[in-house]
Amino acid sequence: MNVLIVDDQYENRYMLTTLLKGNGFAVFEAENGVEAVDMVQNNPLDLIISDILLPRMDGFSFCKEIKGNPEFQKIPFVFYSAAYTDIKDQQFAMSLGADLFIVKPTDPIEFISIIQELLSQIPSHEVPDFDKPLSEMDFLSEHNRRLLSQLEKKLDELQEANNALTLSERRYWDLVEEVNPD
Q1: Homologous superfamily of 2-131 in CATH?
Q2: What confidence score (pLDDT) does residue 139 get?
Q3: Is the pTM of this model over 0.90?
Q4: Are the C-beta atoms of residues 52 and 72 closer than 8 Å to each other?
């Protein structure tokens, strides 16, 4: 079985490659959606496992591109993401034709079990059923909502980190004043 792993983080690709090769899969790798489209067009693939947060072409756009092409739409597509974990992210992914959505990190044994179960359920000669493909306008609208949601999460995380840093700085200066009370 030939599997394409799409992830911009070397460590994530290495872990999945090692895990999949150790379980008898042949593995191809891509760092972004643009490279991944090229890999799909030039290699016989039985499965795609893709992150969502990717440079150049994100995973949502990559999935839409693959599932919109009759030549490749039968390839099972799995999202494996740590950043996009909201139920709406998962629903959007499935509306694009993804077969599965797995949240990172997942125990390696469980991950392989999930992948093997998926592959056993999808006959290679059939196109998986999914809702009518989204119109370009609907795709862009929901894609932008997912991006905005992700940016809002990151802004909240940055604000929390900034608040913690401010508190830490205040404590530091309080300690400095205690040591040097002049």
Answers
A1: Response regulator (3.40.50.2300)
A2: 77
A3: no
A4: no
